[in-house]
Amino acid sequence: MSSSASNSDGLSGGAVRYSGGAGSVSALFESSESGTSLGGVSSGASSLILLSGSSEADPPVAEAAEQVAASDESGDIIGIDVGDEGDEVNLPEISGYDWAPYEPRTLVTRFRWGNDLGDLVERTRIFSEEVEDGHLRVKICAGNETVCHGKREAKLDFFYVYACLFHDLGLNVPFADWQMAILRQIQCAPTQIHPNAWASMQAFDALCRAAGLTPTMPLFLHFYKTRPTASKGWVSFLGANKSLFTLYLASYKGFKTGFFKVAIPRKGRRYIFDEQDRPKFPLYWTAFPPPTDAWAEEQLTPAERADLAVLKTLPDKIHPRPLI
User: Fold this and answer.
1) Is 277 left (phi over 0), alpha (psi -120 to 50) or beta?
2) Locate the Transposase (putative) gypsy type domain: which residues (predicted)?
3) Residue 249 backbone zone (phi > 0: left; psi -120 to 50: alpha; other: beta)
4) Whole-prediction pTM value?
């Protein structure tokens, strides 16, 4: 997708209007010794999740043991595929990923058992309320899988995610349309960008909602560029035009081995694929994603330029943590 793409990317699900108007946006901010924060915005509380086995069709009795079932009061249903659980050793190395940076290519997940992943899902909302019961499910990775691996022989499409995206940053699957458009624009899978980059997107979403603005891919990428390198494991957003946010964490520890898969049964494809059955974002890592430049102001639509004028009045280097 070129930088001159239509602003329809990311608008269908990302446009949110709040009362108060953009004219009073400066009043939303409060200053303190610790920096600038956004007043009056609180993150949504995570709700507990009902776990149940779910597959594309009712699983045969022989396969039922590979599904984790638990319950709580939320009413949500998530199938956890535990067919690859366990600490099996001497699994063969999966070849063909020499292009990937060293850490993503060599680190395996710490979620090796159904209970490990079940505990996470019970404490954290993985799927948004729009996802019908059983239409997407989480899956444990095999002991020789890493986040840069492709689909290979898997029957279902899937993508890898880091647990911190949910319990730290409050993401849900499916991601917002404008966030999926960003992944498509920079040609990166969800785990291919650093969690601090996700934090910037989440903070931008909260900021726009509080200010009565519409988050879009071009508007966000007016403030950021990417410069992927083979030596660095994850793609970061580099500030351009204005330093809108500081880093969520200067040193983000522990995320690298906290990953699992979101599997996409046929009945759940509408959440991740478009009407032409194309993925809305890269499901698997892109070898050598290209650098992307910030979107110029003249490339934005009139509505985006109006929102940009409001964002320009905000302080620099807003702390993202209070927004998320």
Assistant:
1) left
2) 167-227
3) beta
4) 0.79
**CA nearest neighbour of 288 among 145, 188, 152:** 188
pLDDT over 50 (residue 166): yes
> Residue range 81-101: average pLDDT?
81
**DSSP strand E in the chain: where?**
29-32, 35-38, 50-51, 67-68, 77-81, 137-139, 157-162, 224-225, 238-239, 259-264
Question: For residue 193, what are the CA distances in angstroms to 25, 160, 256, 310?
Answer: 30, 12, 12, 28
Closest CA to 259 of 134, 107, 129, 133: 107
- Contact partners, residue 33, CB within 8 Å, separation at least 6: none
pLDDT digits (tens, 9 = 90+) for 30-63: 544 444 445 544 443 333 333 333 334 434 333 3
Taking only the tens place, the pLDDT of each residue in 200-240 is: 999 999 999 999 999 999 999 999 999 998 888 899 999 99
Output DSSP code: residue 14.
T
Question: With 0-12 CB in 10 A as exposed, 13-18 as middle and 19+ as buried, what is 237?
Answer: buried
> How many other CB atoms are found less than 10 A from the CB of residue 275?
6
Structure token pair of residue 120: 């996470």
Cis bond before residue 322 (omega within 30° of 0)? no
Of 138, 135, 134, 136, nearest to 122 by C-alpha is 138
